[in-house]
Design goal:
The structure holds two protein chains of two kinds. Chain A is of the alpha+beta class. Chain A is 43% helix and 18% strand. Chain A has nine helices and eight strands. By secondary structure, chain B is an alpha/beta fold. Chain B folds into three domains: 20-175, 3-Layer(aba) Sandwich (Rossmann fold), CATH 3.40.50.300; 188-275, Helix Hairpins; 297-656, no CATH class. The chains are: A alpha+beta, B alpha/beta.
């Protein structure tokens, strides 16, 4: 493999993965997704190495390359989630960074990010995130550091990591009660409604809203 | 900065050159108590977020002539999320020479500071009342008024408004309230945009800086407010700067501005407030938690209901009514009036005053002897519940049930207040967020929630029967409320709003506050109700004199006798029931007491009158809140529904041979 082709090779594998999700498989579709003057050369290399199969005009990943493609997609989508949920950035500002991140995150960092985000299953666009070892190994998980408020035990406290409200109206109402990232929150009750204490304010929330609040749990 | 002389009035702006003081604060922090102190005028004060739904104006008592004091609905922020918040911000936008009194909950420095930023940016002179400092102290929270004062440049004074502590100091400092320098410094690119936009903005009651920040953050209301009064090139300039800010900071201008404010709030909160290590949980805190516990909450709810029932149903509707009706009116007032009127030579006038349908013997006796004690005791009980802080906990308990009806727990306040007076409750439906919720609650109030006057009479009648009668009545009324709510939540378009509700701390109610609140409500009620009692009686009197009454009784016999199985005389009750449901119920009460109704007739008539339109006043309020069409549709549904339901009960009870 030519090291300087590394990024482009990853991009082609990634494109073939997302094409499969969109039910596309021709080389024209691939050309629309990957910009490169040397696309054909690199593609032929991949075919020669058994990473891609070509049948007529149809292209597909192979058993050999699929795990690698899954890892790239996983890193990309985890990065998207991180930029979107954790930093509250808007799409145009994180799309480029997510593309950079997918190439530089190593497995340990990826696992921590995944655990920190609570093993998310979909990216901000709603596409599935391929599970990593840390997610599949759900019996002995690296206990997620960030969980939804609904996962907290009564009496447990945590610090709000991020909130993903469905409407801006809901967001601003939560913010005005002090439900903002960084605030410390204690779960006082789950039923009939969630009741949390933020600072000195008790706030009752319905389940759907509590589910959208993610807290970093304090370890004992 | 461009100063434009004699600018024409801005759209939607109330011109006011007088000095005014505007009270602003989070919900349920004591604005209304301070308002009462400053003006000497009573407004309803309670321990439930969102009691003040309109602005209240008064003249300052001591501060000097010509100074208006304005109480506003509690807000979470000044970027309007609901009508209440819009009301409050519009007051600030539209008045010149306004001093802001920011009423703060001392326990919650962050929320106070969040609200303080936009207030200071608007540039009004301001004073902060750090209210409920006693509660803060109990919870180990200290807030340093001096540091806050020094950091913001405006006076900050600790108060305990319900005990009048610190309010004299507030009054004094309002006279020399200071303006503050801009609290928050934004990203240089944002500051540049403010600098570029400010000269293009008109002179209003608030600083151009606040308006510039508003348009940059895409505040639609500020945009609408400015629409007519800015030069054409203003909006392209705004857009240009929004893009520049996005380029420089990687986030939208709104996010950059909100972020800078949040940082300022966090830093300031760290500096001014301090929470001591928590001591043991106090008893009221624990009780507060139990009262919304899924298991312990129920016995507490039942205890509360029994307490209210005993006070209103047994003491109010029993003991107090007996005393007023039989002793005060029966032994004294009515005989005196009869003797007095006896000197008047015209028989017509005598009959009008003290006859069978006499204004004194019927209307005033009903109003003061039967209805007043019941309403009075209910408002006392409701006032105690409100001030204790129990109602938000009740909202938590019923949230899931209410959700089936397209509502959420927040609707519990209007529904419970409806047990006092449906008309008053219909006005408070404004605390609900969506139109759908307001319509559903208005309909359910008009249809199924009996007001206290009616309830007193109803309980009085039911107490004479077997317990199963009460059970049938409650079951059917609750079933109707739930069923109709369920159905209308499916039929009406629109959304249910989020259930996010602050749970105010449990407090021991202050007798003085409950008393003055009850008196204010009773006064309102009497002004509303007593005239209608008199009109209703005069209507009956005239119908009787003109011999229309027997005719109407005959005409409605198929419904009254055929469908409902009631004696002819019950017709009168339903005629006045059109004016006031409780007056109608009082008529039935008399019939039952005379032994003219058997148990089935009692239950049938009670269910019918409970489901009737509450009263003319309620109808007018529905028109006012939702328009003529909605009001008429509701009436067209409610009246036939009430009669059919009564008929069904009559037939079923007779069919199964229930004997009470």
């Amino acid at each position: 493999m030519h090291p300087n082709h590394g990024h482009k090779r990853d991009e082609i594998l990634e494109a073939l993965w997302t094409m499969a999700e969109d039910q596309l498989q021709t080389s024209a579709d691939l050309a629309a997704r990957v910009e490169s003057t040397r696309l054909d050369t690199i593609l032929n290399e991949l075919i020669a190495e058994g990473d891609v199969v070509r049948e007529g005009d149809k292209l597909a990943l192979t058993e050999k390359s699929r795990p690698r493609a899954a890892q790239i997609i996983r890193r990309h989508r985890l990065a998207e989630r991180m930029f979107c949920d954790l930093f509250g950035l808007e799409e145009q500002s994180w799309e480029a960074s997510a593309c950079t991140f997918e190439h530089i995150l190593d497995e340990t960092v990826t696992q921590s990010v995944c655990a920190f985000l609570g093993h998310p299953t979909v990216c901000p666009h709603g596409k599935p995130i391929p599970p990593g070892a840390c997610c599949i190994d759900s019996h002995k998980p690296i206990e997620p550091v960030v969980v939804s408020l609904t996962e907290l035990k009564v009496g447990q406290s945590g610090r709000i990591a991020y909130i993903t409200p469905r409407t801006t109206r809901r967001l601003s109402r939560l913010v005005s009660y002090g439900v903002v990232p960084g605030s410390e929150v204690k779960l006082n009750q789950r039923y009939p409604s969630y009741v949390i204490r933020i600072d000195q304010t008790d706030v009752a929330l319905e389940t759907e809203i509590a589910r959208e609040i993610f807290v970093r749990v304090e370890r004992e | 900065m461009a100063t434009v002389a004699n600018k024409p009035a801005l759209p939607g702006r109330v011109e006011s050159q007088e000095t005014s003081i505007v009270l602003v604060g989070n919900p349920n922090v004591g604005k209304s108590v301070i308002f009462s102190y400053l003006t000497g005028k009573y407004v309803t004060v309670s321990n439930y977020p969102g009691t003040t739904v309109e602005i209240t104006r008064g003249k300052a008592r001591k501060l000097g002539a010509g100074i208006d004091v304005i109480d506003t609905p509690g807000v979470q922020s000044l970027s309007p999320e609901s009508d209440d918040e819009r009301v409050t911000r519009d007051v600030l936008l539209s008045n010149h020479n306004t001093t802001v009194l920011l009423v703060a909950d001392s326990k919650n420095a962050r929320r106070t500071l969040t609200l303080l930023v936009p207030v200071l940016e608007m540039g009004n002179p301001a004073v902060i009342a750090l209210n409920m400092s006693d509660e803060a102290k109990l919870r180990g929270v200290t807030i340093d008024a001096d540091i806050l004062s020094a950091a913001t440049g405006i006076a900050a004074i600790p108060t305990v408004a319900v005990e009048n502590r610190g309010l004299d100091k507030i009054e004094k400092s309002l006279l020399h309230a200071r303006r503050c320098a801009e609290p928050v410094q934004y990203h240089p690119r944002v500051e540049e945009a403010i600098g570029a936009l400010s000269p293009m903005l008109p002179q209003t009651g608030v600083k151009p800086r606040a308006l510039a920040l508003g348009v940059l953050a895409r505040d639609a209301d500020i945009a609408a407010f400015l629409r007519e009064s800015v030069p054409k090139e203003f909006w392209p300039t705004v857009e240009h700067h929004q893009q520049e800010i996005r380029r420089a900071c990687g986030r939208s201008a709104a996010a950059v501005i909100a972020g800078a404010r949040r940082t300022w709030v966090e830093q300031m909160a760290e500096r001014v407030s301090h929470t001591a290590a928590k001591g043991a949980e106090s008893f009221t805190d624990r009780l507060g938690r139990w009262s919304m516990h899924p298991i312990w909450g129920l016995p507490i709810l039942i205890l509360v209901l029994l307490g209210v029932f005993w006070f209103v149903g047994v003491f109010g509707a029993g003991t107090a009514v007996d005393f007023l009706e039989n002793t005060i009116f029966g032994k004294f007032l009515n005989p005196w009036a009869t003797t007095l009127v006896g000197y008047v030579p015209w028989a017509f006038f005598r009959d009008l005053m003290v006859g069978e349908y006499g204004v004194i013997t019927m209307a005033l006796t009903y109003a003061f002897a039967i209805v007043l004690p019941v309403v009075g005791t209910f408002f006392l009980a409701f006032g105690a519940l409100e001030d204790s802080g129990y109602l938000p906990r009740l909202a938590v308990m019923v949230d899931r049930l209410f959700r089936a009806m397209g509502l959420n727990g927040r609707a519990v306040l209007p529904m419970v207040l409806g047990l006092g007076c449906d008309t008053m409750a219909t006005l408070t439906t404004r605390v609900l967020d969506t139109k759908k919720e307001r319509v559903i609650v208005t309909l359910l109030l008009a249809l199924g929630v009996p007001c206290s006057a009616q309830m007193g009479v109803i309980l009085g009648m039911l107490s004479g029967l077997a317990f199963s009668a009460t059970f049938i009545w409650i079951g059917i009324v609750l079933g109707v409320i739930f069923g109709v709510g369920l159905l209308s939540s499916k039929l009406l378009k629109g959304e249910r709003s989020d259930f996010i509700l602050e749970i105010s701390p449990l407090r021991l109610p202050k007798i003085g506050n409950i008393m003055s609140k009850t008196l204010a409500r009773m006064e309102w009620y009497l002004k509303e109700a007593a005239p209608l009692f008199v009109y209703g009686t005069i209507l009956l009197f005239l119908m009787d004199k003109l011999h229309v009454l027997p005719w109407v009784e005959r005409a409605s016999a198929p419904v009254i006798k055929g469908l409902l199985g009631l004696p002819r005389e019950a017709t009168q009750a339903f005629i006045v029931g059109f004016l006031r449901r409780d007056y109608g119920a009082a008529g039935l009460f008399m019939l039952a007491r005379n032994g003219s109704l058997d148990p089935i007739q009692v239950v049938t008539s009670l269910i019918t009158i409970t489901l009737f339109m509450p009263c003319i006043a309620n109808f007018f309020v529905v028109i006012k809140e939702h328009g003529m069409k909605a009001a008429i549709l509701m009436g067209l549904f409610i009246i036939p529904f009430a009669l059919l339901m009564g008929g069904a009960v009559n037939f079923v009870l007779r069919g199964v041979g229930w004997t009470g």
